[in-house]
């Protein structure tokens, strides 16, 4: 076993064929050990048979058969002394040393923190992730110097008597708030030491993602349920009390159409978000000119701009501004930003799209920036960090009234993430807001 332990730590698990080969090799070594242990008897029998053949005229075939049978018996019949010696050889200090170093390599290679404790809770060994998790973790110190949670310490002190692994989860507040799961396993099998193995798993990220998913579903259902409830209310009224009321029907139908299109907008936005998220790990590879993206966005927004009595000014890049991008997604980014400026800006206001090239500096590649600037009411600073969260709105009622779903900036952020770009928001209440997008120039680092 020792001979295989070291390569095994570095290579893939042996194939079935390889394992069969190892079993055959081990068997042959057992047979050789038995033969070696009975060597003098074998030699003695060989001499006796030769003498009998020479002196007593024993037929050679008979003498040979007797000798071969003796050797076969020696080799094939189990012998406690030689087999034990063979197994002892495997567990010799050298073999054990090799096994221990293979275990050490394996423990260090584990992605999760692993700590080996003495029965009294003293740290005997900790792998690299464990040292990364607790800066003050030292071999020889007590585990309670880094994990003080009573649930965990109780599990460690109960482990030697319990004889089986238990998993406890606990929360930590310092140095950062996180939730951990610790599997505490006493090493009772094959060892008398009673040492305790502790395997840690950080549950924080998984729980945060689960919470986000639950919040997202709750928010999306809530957003859909509101117009749906309103539609059902109107339908019931039209089926009962207002059945013959033409005036009521005339009033209700436009509101119903409005609610239906709100649902459509929400579903479109959700689909758009999920499409961008699905492609998040595939950076776009088309060469796109940002001047073309700005022109196209302006053309599609022009009717809305004049409907809302706004002015949209565009200052383009002086030269083609080539980036690796998805043209439709980049158009959607500018449309969402300009649409917000129109929606939340004061009627009759001005919106500017300003292009700027930021030359490369040190290791930072050259970038193209497009700022969408409005002179609307602006946004209070406490809202700025949360604006790109899904469904986050400064004023929910006013956003809904304007047909907002609260997903526009979340889509912008995800598209820019996919483009390895950035969104910077600056705003001063009463003076207006500036939403700047930045994307690396094509061919940059
Ligand atoms: N230019 C702006 N001026 C003032 N407030 C803004 C501006 N842009 C965004 N906001 C605020 O940020 C919030 C989030 O914007 P976002 O675009 O994500 O959602 P929305 O506009 O409400 O809905 P949607 O874009 O999905 O139709 C808005 O509800 C609004 O409160
Ligand atoms: Mg919006």
Describe it.
The protein has 445 residues and is α+β, with helices and mostly antiparallel strands. The chain folds into four domains: 2-94, no CATH class; 110-202, Beta-Lactamase (2-Layer Sandwich); 207-278, Signal transduction histidine kinase, dimerisation/phosphotransfer (DHp) domain (Helix Hairpins, Orthogonal Bundle); 286-440, Heat Shock Protein 90. It contains 14 helices and twelve strands. The chain has helices at 2-10, 16-37, 39-55, 60-76, 80-90, 93-109, 128-133, 150-162, 204-239, 246-278, 290-307, 327-344, 396-401, 408-418; strands at 114-117, 123-126, 166-172, 178-186, 196-202, 286-289, 311-315, 322-325, 350-358, 367-374, 422-428, 432-440. The strands form three sheets. A five-stranded antiparallel β-sheet has the order 2-1-5-4-3. Strands 7-9-10-12-11 form a five-stranded mixed β-sheet, covered by helices on one side. Helix 9 packs antiparallel against helix 10 (246-278), helix 11 runs parallel beside helix 12 and helix 12 (327-344) packs antiparallel against helix 14. The radius of gyration is 38 Å and the shape is elongated. The two termini are 50 Å apart.
What keywords describe this structure?
elongated; alpha+beta; 53% helix; binds adenosine-5'-triphosphate; Helix Hairpins; Beta-Lactamase; 14 helices; 445 residues; 12 strands; binds magnesium ion; single chain; 4 domains
């Amino acid at each position: 076993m020792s001979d295989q332990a070291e390569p095994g730590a570095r290579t893939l698990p042996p194939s079935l064929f390889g394992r069969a080969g190892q079993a055959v090799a081990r068997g042959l070594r057992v047979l050789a050990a038995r033969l070696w242990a009975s060597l003098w008897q074998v030699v003695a029998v060989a001499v006796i048979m030769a003498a009998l053949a020479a002196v007593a005229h024993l037929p050679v075939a008979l003498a040979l058969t007797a000798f071969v049978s003796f050797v076969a018996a020696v080799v094939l019949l189990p012998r406690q002394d030689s087999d034990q010696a063979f197994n002892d050889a495997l567990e010799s200090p050298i073999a054990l040393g090799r096994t221990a170093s293979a275990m050490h390599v394996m423990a260090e290679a584990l992605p999760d923190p692993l700590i080996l404790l003495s029965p009294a809770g003293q740290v005997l060994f900790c792998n690299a992730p464990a040292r990364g998790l607790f800066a003050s973790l030292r071999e020889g110190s007590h585990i309670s110097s880094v994990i003080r949670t009573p649930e965990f310490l109780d599990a460690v002190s109960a482990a030697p008597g319990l004889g089986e692994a238990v998993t406890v989860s606990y929360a930590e507040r310092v140095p950062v708030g996180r939730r951990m799961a610790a599997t505490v396993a006493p090493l009772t099998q094959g060892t008398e030491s009673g040492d305790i193995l502790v395997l840690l798993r950080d549950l924080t990220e998984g729980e945060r993602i689960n919470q986000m998913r639950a919040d997202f579903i709750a928010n999306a259902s809530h957003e859909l349920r509101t117009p749906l409830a309103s539609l059902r209310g109107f339908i019931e009224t039209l089926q009962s009390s207002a059945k013959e009321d033409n005036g009521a029907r005339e009033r209700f139908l436009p509101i119903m159409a409005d609610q239906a299109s709100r649902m459509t907008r929400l579903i479109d936005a959700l689909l758009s978000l999920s499409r961008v998220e699905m492609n998040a790990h595939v950076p776009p590879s088309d060469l796109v000119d940002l001047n073309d993206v700005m022109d196209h966005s302006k053309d599609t927004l022009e009717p809305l701009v004049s409907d809302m009595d706004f002015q949209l000014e565009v200052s383009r890049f002086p030269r083609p501004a080539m980036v690796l991008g998805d043209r439709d997604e980049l158009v959607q980014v500018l449309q969402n930003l300009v649409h917000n400026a129109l929606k939340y800006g004061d009627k009759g206001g001005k919106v500017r799209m300003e292009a700027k090239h930021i030359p490369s500096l040190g290791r930072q590649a050259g970038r193209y920036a497009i700022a969408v600037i409005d002179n609307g009411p602006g946004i209070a600073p406490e809202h700025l960090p949360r604006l790109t969260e899904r469904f986050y709105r400064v004023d929910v009622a006013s956003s809904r009234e304007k047909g907002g779903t609260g997903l526009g900036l979340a889509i912008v952020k995800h598209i820019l993430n996919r483009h390895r770009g950035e969104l910077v928001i600056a705003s001063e209440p009463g003076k207006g807001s500036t939403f700047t997008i930045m994307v690396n120039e094509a061919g940059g680092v």
